[in-house]
């Protein structure tokens, strides 16, 4: 049996991918400044893998032209 690929990251995993601290990632999520954050229940936050990838791929693009 093959396991299905996860579609989300934990806040800690997203923080590691972004190169920021876990605390900063939680703060950005609370402010609505971390794209792809999904709130599950009262406390659980996860980050969309696709939206995080899009953010990382777009971070190196130059808007000048």
Question: Summary?
Answer:
This protein has 65 residues and is α+β, with helices and mostly antiparallel strands. It is 45% helix and 18% strand. Helix 1 (11-18) packs across helix 2.
Walk me through the structure.
The chain is of the alpha+beta class. The protein has three helices and three strands. A hairpin with a 3-residue loop joins strand 2 and strand 3 (44-48).
Order of helices and strands: EHHEEH
Low-confidence stretches: none
Main β sheet profile: 3 strands, antiparallel
By secondary-structure content and strand pairing, the structural class works out as alpha+beta
Number of domains: 1
CATH topology: Multidrug-efflux Transporter Regulator, Chain: A, Domain 2
Q: Tell me the number of strands.
A: 3
Q: Any guess at the CATH architecture?
A: Orthogonal Bundle
Broad CATH class: Mainly Alpha
Oligomer: single chain
Overall mean pLDDT stands at 90
Features:
Multidrug-efflux Transporter Regulator, Chain: A, Domain 2, 45% helix, 3-stranded antiparallel β-sheet, 65 residues, alpha+beta
Topology:
Elements: E1 8-10, H1 11-18, H2 22-31, E2 37-40, E3 44-48, H3 49-59
Antiparallel strand pairs: 1-3, 2-3
Helix pairs in contact: 1-2
